[in-house]
Amino acid sequence: MSQEMTTVGLVLARGGSKGIVNKNLARLEGKPLLLRTLEVMHQAKCFDSIWVSTDDDKIAEYAEKGQANVHRRASYTATDEATSLIAVQEFLQYHPEFTHVCLVQCTSPFIKAKYLREGVKKILGEYDSVFSVTRRHNLRWTEGNNTKPQNFDPSHRPRRQDWGGDLCENGMFYFTRVSLINQGLLQGGRCGYVEIPTEDSLEIDTPLDIIIAQEWLDYHKKQCYNKVK
Q1: Domain ranges for the chain
Q2: In degrees to the nearest 10, what's the CA dihedral of 21, 25, 27, 33?
Q3: Grouped pLDDT means (10 residues each) for the chain, 229 residues
């Protein structure tokens, strides 16, 4: 008999952070990033269970406020060198009941429920892994003294409107079959993606990112206010 498909929404939120102290709890509109993300995950209504994996007491406290289960992750999964894959594998050692994992990044403040729902629809369908991407129109060059173009011909420089651009991971979320995680892969098999608009793809990694995110939120508030007027 085949195992019933179950999907866990998992946020990895360790306490250590160099760019921004307590980055996962940095506030936008007065609300910690972790709580903003958990609210969206609950709104999506596409997870059988929602968990936060953390080594930090404060983060655990906020996770519970956000109605998430708390997994106390092992210290070796919370170092600067530890990969997300290691942390997910450690979580699954204690929770083998799931068939699919959605790793959600709480430092992507503009994540929406509809993106998660699209991802889970694909992962429970024909795909083995599904992740979020953003279309970039960057002309890339190699490093070194004699730099060379990587994705365009200088004699025919593409105009933005004539070029589809490149699909780039933005880290917002990764849906993966547990069987792939057990093989040491976050992505593999038949891969699919959910394309996220540029304006929703900001990742909080520096203090400047928080300023930009807050300004963007304030801008939208002003636009809505002007429409009402």
Answers
A1: 7-228
A2: 130
A3: 80 81 90 97 97 95 97 88 92 95 96 97 95 95 94 90 91 96 96 96 93 90 65
Can you tell me the distance from the alpha carbon of 48 to that of 5, in angstroms, rounded to the nearest whole number? 10
Please compute Rg for the chain using Cα positions. Answer: 19
Residues with a known catalytic role: 157
Query: Can you tell me the distance from the alpha carbon of 206 to that of 102, in angstroms, rounded to the nearest whole number?
Result: 25
- Rounded CA separation 101/136 (Å): 27
pTM, two decimals, is 0.91
pLDDT at 228: 55
**Distance between CA 211 and CA 181 in Å, rounded?**
35
β pairing state of 27-28 and 31-32: antiparallel
Residue carrying the six token digits 């173009």: 149
What one-letter code names the amino acid at 12? L
As a CATH number, domain 7-228 is 3.90.550.10
CA–CA distance, 193 with 3 (Å, rounded to integer): 25
With helix as H, strand as E and coil as C, how does the chain read?
A: CCCCCCEEEEEECCCCCCCCCCHHHCEECCEEHHHHHHHHHHHHCCCCEEEEEECCHHHHHHHHHCCCEEEECCHHHCCCCCCHHHHHHHHHHHCCCCCEEEEECCCCCCCCHHHHHHHHHHHCCCCCEEEEEEEECCCCECCCCCCCECCCCHHHCCCHHHCCCEEEEEEEEEEEEHHHHCCCCCCCCCEEEEECCHHHCCCCCCHHHHHHHHHHHHHHHHHHHHHHC
